[in-house]
Specification:
- By secondary structure, the chain is an all-alpha fold.
- It is built from 19 helices and no strands.
- Helix 2 (about 15-25) runs antiparallel to helix 9, helix 4 packs antiparallel against helix 17 (about 370-395) and helix 13 (about 245-275) packs antiparallel against helix 14 (about 280-300).
């Protein structure tokens, strides 16, 4: 390193424990989000809501999340206090999430089981849950840019967070596998009991890691130690004038669409389209996240620059394109091949997610006065696009694929579920790779001179 880097503590690589404590801070969000995208639509349709009503519940949460990220990002840029926002958001998530999967509370109070009231109740709690989720997400993501100016350490923090995202998802599917095995869903009440236990267990595990994060992570002091021009709040219009902002926003949006839409339809696909065992709706996602976890850990040992970010993102996108094509063509009589496809999906997810989030750090660079707005605005686009995409897809899910298959349909056909799991992610990956190709990441300056120290040391 240069002498200037040695004098500035914020350009030095940060320690392993600092990376670890930061990485576990999003576990509550991750485990509840995994349950949200994997099981919400399945749960709501199983208890009697129509596909369109289930889509309304999902959309209400996504819209609330999207707008909350904008306001939270602006308030954090104005007043700071990342850990306060994180703690408050986590508390709201813990309180509200059980009501999202815990049955219709107003229905019990009013002794009214109308589908309209159920839809309203689930939509209301979904919105509250997502407001808390947004506060935690934006504060946690923005902290990366204020903890260190070191480019490799920023990727280390992102990669560690992504690794624990995989741990959270694996934890959820382990819980789900046990619950689905112990409690059989013979009625609506049994189904609600299943998901209530999953929700309670997820909240308990997530809150333990939130406590570890709050105790082990110090409030970032980078702004206070940078020169005044760097720590001043940057107006929104500054980012809107940068081409890189739109490119990073598009790549992040498309990447989140790949992950969230595929996750939402994975359980539907393995159970309804492929008619695999019930355990497959936990085992297939588990394989995906085991592979993602391994790749995320390996990515921490790479010295990063703009060219490598683009190359690894492109590799992940190409893998997903082939996986999407395989899903579209996969017949029911060789459904076990889905386990092999899951391995490559997990690899692609990790490559795309780690690099897409790291591109935000390249965009922010040392201009940390607007880091929360960047994270919030990009998250707004992510939530709105995912909500609308799932609403459109689910609105066309008028009949069960299992019913269609039993009516002498061919064993491989293009259902809404196949579109959601195969075609949509593949197209988004293709466009994301194309946008990445034209990026000038070196222009951001953050990664133009990668540091060669071993990561996390």
């Amino acid at each position: 390193m240069t002498g200037g880097s040695e004098e500035d503590p914020f350009t030095k690589p940060i320690g392993r424990w600092s990376v670890f404590f930061y990485g576990v801070g999003h576990m509550l969000n991750d485990i509840t989000a995994s349950c949200w995208f994997t099981y919400l639509l399945l749960f709501l349709t199983q208890i009697g809501l129509s596909p369109r009503d289930a889509a309304i519940v999902m959309l209400s949460g996504q819209v609330a999340d999207g707008f909350a990220t904008i306001f939270t990002g602006e308030l954090i840029d104005r007043f700071g206090h990342f850990k306060v926002w994180h703690a408050a958001g986590s508390l709201l998530v813990a309180i509200s999430f059980s009501s999202v999967f815990g049955g219709c509370l107003p229905c019990s109070i009013l002794h009214n089981d109308s589908l309209t009231l159920e839809t309203f109740s689930y939509s209301m709690f979904a919105a509250i849950f997502n407001i808390g989720w947004a506060a935690t997400q934006v504060s946690h993501m923005a902290m990366v840019n204020c903890i260190s100016l070191n480019s490799t350490s920023r990727v280390a923090l992102t990669s560690c967070r992504n690794a624990f995202t995989m741990v959270a998802n694996l934890g959820l599917y382990a819980i789900a596998l046990v619950v689905f095995g112990v409690i059989k869903a013979g009625s609506k009440e049994d189904t609600e009991t299943q998901y209530r236990w999953i929700a309670y267990s997820s909240i308990t595990i997530g809150c333990c890691f939130v406590i570890i994060f709050l105790m082990g992570t110090k409030e970032p002091r980078l702004r206070l130690d940078l020169r005044e021009t760097s720590r001043a709040r940057i107006p929104w219009v500054y980012w809107f004038r940068k081409l890189l902002y739109y490119q990073v926003a598009m790549v992040y949006l498309l990447t989140r669409l790949v992950l969230n839409v595929s996750q939402a339809y994975l359980a539907f696909f393995v159970i309804d389209d492929l008619q695999m065992d019930q355990s497959a709706k936990a085992l297939v996602p588990a394989i995906i996240y085991i592979c993602s976890f391994v790749v995320s850990v390996l990515l921490q040992e790479i010295p990063w620059n703009g060219r490598r970010l683009k190359a690894y993102y492109t590799a992940g996108g190409i893998i997903w394109i082939f996986c999407g094509a395989a899903i579209l063509l996969l017949p029911r009589n060789i459904s076990s091949f889905m386990y092999a496809i899951s391995v490559f999906i997990g690899i692609a997810n990790a490559l795309m997610m780690v690099t897409a989030i790291s591109m935000q750090s390249v965009l922010v660079g040392a201009e940390v006065g607007g880091c929360a707005f960047v994270c919030g605005s990009l998250s707004f686009l992510d939530k709105m696009s995912c909500g609308l995409a799932l609403y459109v897809l689910q609105s066309h899910q008028s009949t069960s694929p299992r019913t269609q298959l039993n009516n002498n349909q061919p064993s491989a056909y293009l259902s809404v579920t196949r579109y959601g799991l195969g075609l949509v992610p593949a197209l988004c990956s293709f466009v994301g790779v194309a946008v990445t190709f034209f990026m000038e990441l070196e222009a951001g300056g953050s990664l133009s001179k990668p540091l060669r120290e071993p990561l996390l040391e």
